[in-house]
Amino acid sequence: MMPLKAAVIGAGWFACECHIPALAARDDVILDGVCRIGAADLLRVRERFGFAFASEDYREVLARKPDIVVVASPHKFHFEHATAALEAGAHILCEKPMTLEPNEAWQLVRLADRVGRHLLIANSYNYLPHVASIRDRIAAGLIGDIEHVMCSFISATRDVFLGARGLDKWRAALFRPDDATWRDPAAGGGFAYGQLSHSLALMFFLTGLEPVRVSSSTCYRNDVDIADAAQLTLSNGAVASISGAAAMPQGHQALMRLFIAGSGGLVAMDFDLDSCEIRLNNGDVERLPLRAGDWTVDSAAPVLALADLAGGAGQNLSPGDIGAFTTSTIFSLLESSAKDGQPIQISEPLDFRR
């Protein structure tokens, strides 16, 4: 099989730290085209990684007909760039948040189905060991009917959202996070779009449930949300408590905790502790054989899955519909917070569903 032609739209700090090196390390991928704004910075990327072509106009990159495209541009451009990449015939990985508007997210789901291309969202937790098998076992009735979910995520991102432009370990990176993306609420800046997009996607993936209604509160600093908490009603009538904050000190792994309680038992997942325990009503207790570091997130996993899928192998564990549910929840969560916690029905246009 011929090597896959890969293109990247939005070669900023994270694409250059994660997605591009992961693709460059594969023998079955050619780095064909790259796009970013700024001629000098674009040249640095092209020379660093050896792209065959570079342009500040993403249309010129897509005109070369890449097989796979990574969309890692600022949040507010995801819909435009992902739409163009799918219409050009590429399988795509879209960085999270998938989009800022629910309708746009569901339009991408529908478009990917129509053109027969894989659409992945960069939700790395879904690819960790045992996570997919836990999802399958829950779907098969491991803990009965899900009745309650608790999901909390605390990450070391305060300096991303409040002025220092990222972690100390990024100071040697090719680029730094762009304030216009991460600190402007109108552009999806803040913890909800930037970080809850991880934990919500993981929750929807594991439970197989859909969001129905949300009531929330948000803590703001300098007009940017840095902590969020919400009560969520799910499609089977279960209730979920979701929360998160940009509060983990630098140098420490993000805290991700997720408890799923059902009529027949409980799954308790402590990702930062590499721990998962299943407790069933019949008295059985199972502890998954996780080693230290097994649940340390691998941010390259989704882009590697993109290349695998384009080559006819692998699994899409972070599909577009989960990204759309996540965007819809965050959009309504922020609306509820702005209305002092008023319950908001979560938008889900049925004609965009799979």
Automatic annotation (TrEMBL):
This is Predicted dehydrogenase. It comes from the Bacteria. It comes from Stappia indica. It holds the Pfam family GFO_IDH_MocA_C3. Residues 5-119 form the Gfo/Idh/MocA-like oxidoreductase N-terminal domain. SUPFAM superfamilies: Glyceraldehyde-3-phosphate dehydrogenase-like, C-terminal domain, NAD(P)-binding Rossmann-fold domains. Coiled coil: none annotated. GO terms for molecular function: nucleotide binding. Residues 132-265 form the GFO/IDH/MocA-like oxidoreductase domain.
